[in-house]
Design goal:
The chain has 82 residues and is mostly helical. It has one domain. It has helices at residues 16-21, 30-38, 54-78, and strands spanning 2-3, 26-27. The longest helix has 25 residues, at 54-78.
């Protein structure tokens, strides 16, 4: 699955937010994110050829981690009430 304009491919940025804000083509990595977040390994090695999305994947993971930490902090602050 993908989001954004499939006719506009951003080749210059590795920031997840740039892809979303500029409506660039972005391939949904939800399954990848869930796999990485659930993995209990101490170290994960991501090998890909040059210009194949390593930095974008890491930035997407960082954004998702920040979002999850914020949700947990909010739940603790409100006692689970929203």
């Amino acid at each position: 699955m993908y989001v954004g304009n499939k006719n506009f491919i951003n080749l210059t940025s590795s920031q997840f937010s740039d892809f979303i804000e500029d409506c660039c083509l972005y391939v949904d990595k939800t399954a990848f994110i869930e796999h990485v977040m659930q993995d209990k390994s101490r170290v994960l090695l991501f090998t890909r050829p040059r210009r194949m999305g390593k930095s974008l994947n890491m930035n997407t993971l960082a954004d998702e981690r920040q979002r999850r930490v914020a949700v947990v902090a909010d739940e603790r602050r409100t006692g689970g009430r929203n």
